[in-house]
Design a protein that fits this description.
Radius of gyration of chain A: 19 Å
Helix content of chain A: 10-25%
Number of domains of chain A: 2
Distance between the termini of chain A: 25 Å
CATH architecture of the largest domain in chain A: 2-Layer Sandwich
Shape of chain A: globular
Number of strands of chain A: 10
Largest interface: A-B, 31 and 31 residues
CATH topology of the largest domain in chain A: Alpha-Beta Plaits
Order of helices and strands of chain A: EHEEHEEEHEEEHHE
Oligomer: homodimer
Chain lengths: ~260, ~260
């Protein structure tokens, strides 16, 4: 009987060319499919929720796959993780991708199409000196950032808008560029400015362009009110730069 | 006039094949010599204090070089760091090696031969679950470790001994394997067990073998008292495993 399995996955994106399977290069989907195919004894093709870019991390990526195979769902994580931690890419006995949980889901469930939304975190480290040991894991800005201005700008971004201005070229074709951001919070936690954004869907590079725009507001290159005009214009050129991938974490997928 | 410059250097060892220059592969010495040669306008050859292995980190590596060139010592760090942070290996705008300071030293000063000793730190992370984001930066042991037993074993290691038992094959020839460990402390700081060892010199892989031996004491595979016999035996086979490189940090060089 065909089963449908939903995985929750975490990975450090710094050693991957992104989520999506590609020939010749190491991707999260590619690595996981190889190991799952070995463990399940059938060819496994994953449907991931988010096609994260190279260098982007995930604490709660989701992916589902179907097939007729024997291993109980709750034994998949350990079986996969043991193989991954023993792989050539593991460092000091620890791999860079890990399955947190696996569960049986109904036949019509699809990790991407059944999703109601997602939550991402973007970490900006704001100290006068960079920390080379954190270079894969945050966006390091050495000049002081104006947190209050960033928070004000965030309020203009939250809500339902046409977010074309925050969309990079090169993504999939979309029917509409209108999205709803349910919440966009900015908090300072010790040296980090942590941006958390949840919404019903995100355009290509949208979170990183929002983070880059908020960073420019923090640096005083843009006023918080400029964001209103940027969104109204629908013009990518008016928005801020695309913040680097290492600061971005896919935290949660909502079903 | 020939000048003599002493550098203090930090690096994240995870992207390097160790300190020592080698053809074809990326090493810390090789990267720094390339950039320094460019900035000083003369061929620069570095004398590093410690030939750290692949994956080993440094917060306070030292290296000296001689030559007749113009740039003031205090302008070297920024010039080098800017080039490194713009290089192909930089991530999110931050490089993985950085010069902290540069100073003029007398002609007879040599970063290695003038050194009186060094301090290393070894970090063991001790929680039931691994953290994949820390896989390059610590040794992750999931079973509980007996800290009191490790501290007791450490007391037997400190002092002046023939440390042949803690020497891996493959290092340089040494006149003697007697060394003095001035202090060997073990502290629990949140989830990490931090081993700090300072001494007048260290044999090849000595700190990692000490860390592996202490870890085995913590796991109950060895008794603290076994360490006395291991040292007396001079037998590498009796000592513990070589702990992985990512947990090791060269902290300070004493002159």
């Amino acid at each position: 009987m065909e089963r449908n399995i939903l995985l929750t996955i975490e990975y450090d994106g710094s050693g991957f060319h992104g989520w999506q399977r590609q020939p010749q290069v190491r991707t999260v989907q590619g690595e996981l499919e190889k190991v799952l195919t070995h463990i399940c004894g059938i060819p496994v093709a994953l449907n991931g929720t988010s096609r994260t870019d190279a260098g982007v991390h995930a604490l709660g990526q989701r992916a589902s796959f179907k097939g007729d195979f024997g291993i109980p769902a709750d034994r998949i994580p350990l079986a996969v993780n043991n193989l991954l931690a023993g792989g050539a890419s593991a460092q000091n006995g620890v791999g860079d991708v890990r399955i947190i949980s696996a569960e049986e889901v109904p036949a019509d469930f699809h990790a991407r199409f059944s999703s109601r939304g997602k939550m991402y975190r973007y970490i900006i480290r704001n100290l006068p000196e960079v920390d080379i040991f954190k270079r894969h894991y945050c966006y390091q800005i050495c000049q002081p950032l104006d947190l209050a201005a960033m928070k004000q700008a965030a309020e203009y971004i939250a809500g339902t808008h046409d977010f074309r201005c925050f969309q990079a070229a090169g993504g999939q074709e979309r029917e509409t560029t209108v999205r709803t951001i349910h919440s966009l919070s900015i908090q300072k936690v010790s040296e980090n400015i942590i941006i958390e954004v949840s919404g019903d869907g995100f355009l290509y590079n949208m979170v990183r362009i929002i983070a880059g725009t908020l960073a420019e507001v923090g640096m005083g290159k843009k006023n918080p009110e400029d964001v209103i005009e940027i969104i109204e214009s629908g013009d990518r050129q008016k928005a801020g730069h695309t913040a680097p991938p290492g600061g971005l974490y896919l935290i949660e997928v909502y079903y």
